[in-house]
Amino acid sequence: MLTLNKGLSNVFGSTSGMTLQDSILGSAFMPAPVKWLNMAGAHTTGGINGFSEDRLNRINTFMGNAFGNTGDRINAAIEESGKTYGTLSGSAYDAAQGNIDWVNSVWHKLLGLSD
């Protein structure tokens, strides 16, 4: 039965398990209808425009210990980008997408300053 449940999750999709609710509701032991209800209103976060490891290293070298928590926010946005949040994790999705949007707004400014 667990194999069937996993197979159906692969067909209908599942969350990335970024929150405790999504981890529990997406587990193999959770009944399939509960998983599908959580996936019914799921959202996937966007990405960082123009992201590359080289650019990230350039920005980190430029910033050093300056610019407050900007480095932490960039690292959090990298981890949060492209992740799927379930229906019950709407506030976590909003916070993650807000951070990604903020990083997108400062990303090219920091690249310009580092040049």
Uncertain runs are none
Average of pLDDT: 84
* Estimated structural class: mainly alpha
Query: How helix-rich are the residues, as a percent range?
Result: 55-70%
**Count of the separate structural domains:** 1
Cα-based radius of gyration, to the nearest Å: 17 Å
- In angstroms, what separates the terminal alpha carbons? 57 Å
Strand portion: under 5%
Number of strands: 2
SSE series: HHHEHHEH
Strand order of the largest sheet: 1-2
Q: Which word captures the global form?
A: elongated
Largest sheet: 2 strands, antiparallel
**Secondary structure tally, helices:** 6
Describe this entry's structure for a reader.
The chain has one domain (2-114). By secondary structure, it is mainly alpha-helical. The model has no long low-confidence stretch (mean pLDDT 84). It contains 6 helices and 2 strands; from the N terminus they run αααβααβα. The longest helix has 25 residues, at 90-114. The N and C termini lie far apart (57 Å). The protein has a two-stranded antiparallel ribbon with strand order 1-2. Helix 1 runs parallel beside helix 3 and helix 4 crosses helix 6.
